[in-house]
Known about the structure:
Blueprint: E1 11-15, E2 18-22, E3 29-32, H1 33-42, H2 47-55, E4 77-83, E5 86-92, E6 98-101, H3 105-116, H4 119-130, H5 134-145, H6 151-158
Antiparallel strand pairs: 1-2, 2-3, 3-6, 4-5, 5-6
Amino acid sequence: xxxxxxxxxxxxxxxxxxxxxxxxxxxxxxxxxxxxxxxxxxxxxxxxxxxxxxxxxxxxxxxxxxxxxxxxxxxxxxxxxxxxxxxxxxxxxxxxxxxxxxxxxxxxxxxxxxxxxxxxxxxxxxxxxxxxxxxxxxxxxxxxxxxxxxxxxxxxxxxxx
Length: 161
Ligand SMILES: [Zn+2]
Ligand SMILES: [Zn+2]
């Protein structure tokens, strides 16, 4: 199977113990819908790692044009997702139920899920952040500050450090 964006061969790899396919060039990922949900629900990657992953992704990674499914070549459907005020689109094959996630989008889906939970969960995020060293926190804050669209998450981080 080829990357729907770069046309290079997708590589088999693992993400949180699930087998997925990833493009070695753009780092986009292809996986079945149930895998995306399972990864989101397991909440294995800590929020600060998700923020880092998002911060390291290029802002223009979200594919604007319609992609073709790497498996069956059908035109994929765009499904809108949100992380706070940020909107992005995931590409879904209506025939194979495969989902293409541009780099950073899986992290955004996971973080959106974390942020959608009640205050107790937010507290957990803050507890984790408080365990980081000042240098680590500063570095994380610097990365978040370079992402103007992530206001919701930035506000969360700046609550009583
Ligand atoms: Zn690619
Ligand atoms: Zn397909």
